Amino acid sequence: MAQWFSVSVRRRAIFAVFFVLVPSMGMADEKLATLVKQAEQFQLGWDAAQNGELEKAGDIWQALSKEAIEVPELNRALQNNLAVLLIKQKQYPEAEVLLDSALKADIQVATTLSNLNQLYAYEAQKTYKKVFSQATGVTTPSGKFLYFDVKQSALPAEYVSIKLPEFSPEEAFLYQPETQEIIDVKGLLEQWRVAWSNQNIQAYLSFYHSKEFIPKDGLRYSIWEESRHRSLKRPKFIKIEFEDVQIVQLDKNLVRARFLQKYESNLFKDDVYKMVLWQLDGSQWKIVQEIVAGEKS
User: Short name of one Pfam family for this protein (predicted)?
Assistant: First the structure.
């Protein structure tokens, strides 16, 4: 009886809030009733999640996600929270899909991006586990639930769903704030490019971490260094340009740069996509991995 009373009071409270929010919109009773029911369903899932009943929360939110939801804040929170449940089950690829979908919104995007960045950082840390084995270890994603407060929601005019551009996982990083670490690495990336173009071998090699750098094909650093001497000194000229540069901070001590590298000399010419991983060593950023991700088609 007490539980029924609690749900009944909550339903009336939510119903009243919608009338306050839209007193002059002439919304049909059926439409209003649907919105009230969806808000109530979300709240039931939220209560279950807060009580540690994640399976129950998942069932409630999964059922709600199959309905046509016209309140953007509710849809964002719902997709985010379903993704968090997947994160807690270590179903990371499935969680990425839901979080990427949630990026179409902007009001709650900060928390959503934080959860998504945890997944990307986790995958990156696994890829560069040699680096992390001597650093902080791999951080397992945890996720953070979003709460939908009907009192703060903004109902779209005439209840038309808002269509925003879709973002790929990589494009989502463009929304990451430009930290001081990113600014520092951006400057070093340009200095590295200039040293390479000028065939200044000592300046060029100074950007690499002599102990942590992972050469291609498992070469020892000393052998790789000798090969770079030949590669930089043999051509009569070297011209290098970077395009489509994307720099992402993966960790307080790790920054990744991705770009299209256009290389030209009297001996060779190619355009490749490259990834360069920078690690903070004391007060200096050094390259610890350099990978060709593919050729430009």
Answer: Cds6_C
